[in-house]
Design a protein that fits this description.
The protein is an alpha/beta fold. It contains 16 helices and nine strands. The strands form two sheets. A seven-stranded mixed β-sheet has the order 3-2-1-4-8-5-9, with helices on both faces. Strands 6-7 form a two-stranded antiparallel ribbon. The protein is globular, with a radius of gyration of 30 Å. The N and C termini lie far apart (85 Å).
C-alpha cells in the first residue's frame, strides 16, 4: 500500500510546486488596466496615425470634402475617416462613446442661404436678404447667409459688409451656379443644416424692379414669393421650388419654351440616379433659374459620390467630352459655346434639381398648378418629408 502511495505523493508535490510558481507570477503581474495601457496605443497615437492614414478626413487639405467610399457595401474594415480608424483600433465600449451620434446639426442656424454671385449689385442683394430674414419661419430657424462669388475682381470684404452676409467665399469661375451649389453640398455633407436655400444673386421674376414699386421696396421679394415662403415653407418641407413657373419634361424629349430638345444627358442622369430607365412619355416636373429649398434628409438621401460626379461634369475642363455633346443648331447662338465658365451641361443641371432631390413625380407634388404649373402663387410645387417620431429624453413628454 505504501509503495502504491509514493507515486501519488510525488505527483501531488509537483502540482503543489506548479501552483506556488503560478501564484508568485500572478503576484508580480500588473493589474489588467495597466497591462492594457502598456499594449494599447494611447488615443493621441491613434489620432496621429489617422492623420497619416491616406484618405482620412484628417489628412485632407483644409476645405476639401472627404472622399466618398469606393463601395458602400465594401469590407467593414475599410474606413475613410479618422473616427472610423479610431473605431477599428479601440475597444468596442470606448469606440461607441467616440462615435455616438449627436442630434443632426443641432447647433447654429438651421437654414443655410447659399447665393451664387458674379457681378450682381450688393445693395440690391441686401434688399431681398433683409426681406427673407423678416419671414417668421426663417427667423425661427435662424438663417446663415453664404455668398459664393466667381468674379475674381470682387472685393470680398465690401460684398460681405454691404450684404450683411455671414460668409463670402471666392470660387473659380467654372460650372455656373450648379457647380456652386454642388460645392456647398459637398462642403457640409457630413452635417448639413435642416434646410438649405439655393439661389442666384438675382431671384429671377421674384424681386420687384424699378418702376414696379416705390424705391424703398425695389429688389425686395415679390408678394407671391414672400407668401410662398411665409405660408408653405415649414418643418415638413422636403423640396420647394422658388421659381415662378414649372413645367413637365417627358423623358427623352425635354424641350425648353417650345424649342427643340436640348437637355443633353437628361435621360442618362435620371437612369444613374434612379437605377432605372425612364419611359419616353413619363412626365417629370422641372423648374428654372436654380432657386429652391431642400431638406437635410433629401440631401443625405443621395450618396456623396453622386454629387462629386455631377460636380466633375459641370466643372469639367474645356477638353472634356461633356462640352462636345450634340446640341440643336440654335443652342450655341442662344446660350453661347459650351466652356468651363458656361457649360452646356449647367443648363441641364438647372432643370434636374427636382430629380436629384426626388421631387419630380407629378403625383407626389403638392401646391402645383395642374394646368401647366405656370401661374404665380403660393404653391411652389413642393414635396413633403414624412415626419419622424420625436424620441424624448427619459422623463420628457412624448410628442410627434
Amino acid at each position: 500500500m505504501s509503495l502504491l502511495a509514493r507515486p501519488y505523493a510525488k505527483v501531488s508535490a509537483v502540482i503543489f510546486a506548479v501552483l506556488v510558481i503560478y501564484l508568485l507570477l500572478q503576484a508580480h503581474r500588473p493589474p489588467l488596466h495597466e497591462k492594457n495601457a502598456e499594449h494599447d496605443p494611447p488615443l493621441s497615437s491613434l489620432q496621429d496615425a489617422s492623420r497619416a492614414h491616406p484618405g482620412t478626413a484628417a489628412s485632407r487639405p483644409a476645405g476639401d470634402p472627404p472622399s466618398a467610399p469606393l463601395n458602400d457595401n465594401g469590407p467593414t474594415g475599410l474606413k475613410h475617416t479618422a473616427v472610423g480608424l479610431v473605431e477599428d483600433m479601440l475597444p468596442t465600449s470606448t469606440a461607441s462613446v467616440l462615435v455616438s451620434p449627436q442630434p443632426p446639426h443641432s447647433h447654429g442656424p438651421q437654414l443655410h442661404v447659399v447665393i451664387a454671385h458674379y457681378s450682381e449689385e450688393p445693395f440690391y442683394m441686401r434688399r431681398w436678404i433683409d426681406s427673407l430674414r423678416s419671414i417668421p419661419h426663417v427667423k425661427e430657424l435662424g438663417a446663415k447667409i453664404i455668398i459664393y462669388t466667381k468674379n475674381s475682381g470682387t472685393n470680398l470684404a465690401t460684398l460681405k459688409e454691404t450684404t450683411a452676409a455671414d460668409e463670402v467665399i471666392q470660387l473659380p469661375n467654372v460650372g455656373r451656379e450648379g457647380g456652386t451649389y454642388l460645392h456647398h453640398v459637398l462642403s457640409v455633407y457630413d452635417d448639413p443644416p435642416a434646410f438649405t436655400m439655393f439661389t442666384q444673386a438675382v431671384i429671377q421674376k421674384g424681386q420687384y424692379l424699378t418702376g414696379e414699386v416705390e424705391d424703398d421696396k425695389v429688389a425686395t421679394l415679390k408678394d407671391w414669393l414672400y407668401e410662398r415662403l411665409s405660408t408653405k415653407f415649414g418643418n415638413d418641407t422636403g423640396f420647394m421650388s422658388l421659381d415662378r413657373k414649372h413645367d413637365v419634361c417627358y423623358c427623352g424629349h425635354c424641350t425648353d419654351m417650345g424649342q427643340d430638345d436640348f437637355y443633353p444627358l437628361w435621360p442618362q442622369i435620371y437612369a444613374m440616379l434612379e437605377n432605372m430607365v425612364c419611359q419616353e412619355l413619363e412626365g417629370h416636373v422641372l423648374s428654372f433659374n436654380g432657386h429652391f429649398i431642400v431638406s437635410r434628409k433629401r440631401v443625405l438621401a443621395r450618396p456623396r459620390r453622386i454629387y462629386e460626379y455631377l460636380k466633375e461634369l459641370v466643372d469639367a475642363r474645356e477638353d472634356n467630352w461633356i462640352h462636345s455633346e450634340p446640341e440643336p443648331s440654335w443652342f450655341e447662338k442662344d446660350k453661347g459655346k459650351s466652356m468651363p465658365s458656361n457649360p452646356k451641361f449647367g443648363h441641364t443641371l438647372e432643370r434636374l434639381w427636382h430629380v436629384i432631390f426626388n421631387c419630380s413625380n407629378p403625383a407626389q407634388l403638392v401646391d402645383c398648378d395642374v394646368r401647366g404649373m405656370k401661374a404665380e402663387g403660393p404653391g411652389g410645387c413642393t414635396c413633403k418629408d414624412v415626419q419622424e417620431a420625436f424620441v424624448p429624453a427619459l422623463g420628457a413628454d412624448t410628442r410627434i
